[in-house]
Amino acid sequence: MEKFKITKTIRFKLTSSDKSILDYEIKKLNKNIESFELKNFIVGLSDFLEKLEIFLFFTKDNELQVNERINFKESWLRLNAKDEYYKILGNNNPNKIISIKVSDVTGLEEIIKQRFDGVINQINKLNELENFELNERARDEQMSLLIKQIAGRNSIPFFLSLVENTDKMNEENDSSVYLKNKAEAIKNMLLVAIQKYLPNQSQGLSILKASFINKDII
Question: Distance between CA atoms of 96 and 98, rounded to whole angstroms?
């Protein structure tokens, strides 16, 4: 007899009440949405990318190249360069901690450079839009499109994940520490931006997780 399971995602729209244990978190999120300013969002992203460029790259022959002193954790590579990751792993224990340089993974440097250029382009467009004189509806439509791109897996989230899963050998400053701390703030800013401009695509506020596998339906 075949065994199978059905998984479902249930979405709720939360509204606060005086007795709700979530009252504080909901009010905080709503307050952040109401006070969201595009200019501050752009400044935060630009500052993060500026520090990220210093951390990740060096210039050679007027071209950005990924610093060889940066080690990538295998967990990050497994998600972002799966095929090459398993080639590198070979017969090693998959649970063994390994450090991998960008040159060890064919094509990884180009992926990082292309996506970094893409993010810079998105932020520039966002900055231009902030200065355009458009009616509110047209402006919000353009804003939603750009926020969707910036929130995409290969954009800002890619680099937030990269920052959290890299180490730099013989670092001369504290840029890696700064970036790791800044990443959490950027995540929160991005969440608020999504809630404001793309509410239907938001993953919402995670409260509880439940399993319905092998449960009797009442």
Answer: 6
Q: Which is nearest to 81 in space by CA: 150, 154, 149? A: 154
Q: Where are the domains of the chain?
A: 38-201
Q: What single-letter amino acid sits at 33? A: I
pLDDT (tens digit per residue) in 153-206: 889 999 998 888 887 766 666 777 888 888 888 988 888 888 888 766 555 555
**What token pair was written down for 51?**
């520090």
Place of tokens 């630009």: 46
> Which residues, in sequence order, are bridge partners of residue 57?
66
**Per this entry, what is the length of the chain?**
218
Which of 120, 148, 143 has its CA nearest to residue 49? 120
Single pTM value for the model:
0.73
